[in-house]
Structure formats: C-alpha cells, structure tokens
From TrEMBL:
Database matches in InterPro entries: DUF2812 (IPR021359)
Alphabetic keyword roster: Membrane, Transmembrane, Transmembrane helix
Name of the protein this chain belongs to: DUF2812 domain-containing protein
Organism expressing this protein natively: Oceanobacillus iheyensis (strain DSM 14371 / CIP 107618 / JCM 11309 / KCTC 3954 / HTE831)
Top-rank lineage group of the source organism: Bacteria
Residues annotated as transmembrane: 115-138, 144-166
Pfam family, one: DUF2812
Length: 179
C-alpha cells in the first residue's frame, strides 16, 4: 500500500515558481502529486519511486479536450485540476512550456475584477454595519452587529487580499513586458 502525505504550499497566486520548485524537489525524494486542493494551497502526495520530473501550472476556466490534448502533444500529463487551475508534469527532458503574458494578464484582470466587486460590496456592508454598531443603543442588537461585523471583516480580507495580489502580479507582468 502506498503511503500518502499532505503538504501545505504557497498558493498559486502568491508564488507559482516556489510551489513548482517544492513539488519537483519532493518528486526527487519519492513523492508525486496525487490531488490539488484549495487552489493549490494543499497537495496530497503519494509515495512513488524517486524521479526527476517537472511541474507546470496553467490556468484555464473552461478547458476542453483540445486544451488537454495540446499539453499531451508537448509531452505533459495532467496531475490534477481544481477549478481553473491545472497542474501538469513531464519527465526532466521535456521542454518547459512558455507562458503567454497576455493570456496570464487577461486571466488576472478577470479574476481581480471579480474579487474587486465582492470586496467593494463587502466593504460597503462593513461600513453600514459598523455605523449601526456604533449608533444603536440596544446591547443585544449591538452585540449581534459586532458578530456580523467580524464575519464581514473576514470576508473582506478573504476577497481583498487575492484582489491586491492579482493587481500586484499584473503590474509585475507589465513591468517585465516593458523591459
């Protein structure tokens, strides 16, 4: 029976290259990705023979058979997929796939605008609930509003943080395109 282990890695949007490097070094130790969870934050690895393989992340919201077939032709196999994030692997001799900066920037723009809309909505709700908790005199209602305020603050942090990171990565892509 093969052993499995769970690892927590840098989420894809934070540090794609560090995640790939970590997974490749684990493959040399005899651990290969079996499943991706939580957008590339958690990986389930299974024990295999130590090998040198390469990993490649790609993002495609609605992949088709042609999408996967293009990777197969290039020598890459699908390790796993979660939402629009796909992890491929190939033997060490297979050429690395080049990123299309325009495609990546377009994806970052779509996802950041999606998260930005939610962040604005949550921030507006946060503002009004905060005002309500300050001006309402009834203790029971005030306590309930403080609870709602806490939940909204967490929601804002969860949506605004990736929004800011996507914006930062878009700026970083623009800067590398101009250099």
């Amino acid at each position: 029976m093969k052993r499995i282990k769970f690892i927590i890695s840098n989420p894809f949007i934070f540090a794609e290259n560090r995640s790939v490097d970590k997974l490749e070094s684990l493959a040399k130790e005899g651990w290969q990705v079996k499943k991706i969870m939580l957008g590339g934050l958690v990986y389930i690895l299974e024990e295999v023979e130590p090998t040198t393989i390469r990993y490649h992340f790609d993002s495609h919201p609605n992949p088709t058979n042609d999408y996967y077939h293009a990777f197969e032709i290039a020598g890459w196999k699908l390790a796993d997929t979660t939402n629009s994030l796909h992890l491929f692997y190939a033997p060490a001799g297979v050429a690395r796939l080049e990123r299309n900066p325009e495609k990546l920037q377009s994806r970052f723009h779509k996802e950041s605008s999606y998260l930005g809309k939610y962040s604005i909505g949550i921030f507006i709700a946060l503002f009004f609930v905060f005002l309500g908790s300050v001006y309402i005199e009834w203790n029971i209602v005030r306590n309930m509003l403080i609870g709602v305020l806490s939940i909204l603050f967490i929601g804002f942090a969860v949506t605004f943080t990736p929004y800011a990171i996507y914006k930062w990565r878009m700026q970083k892509l623009r800067n590398t395109d101009t250099n």
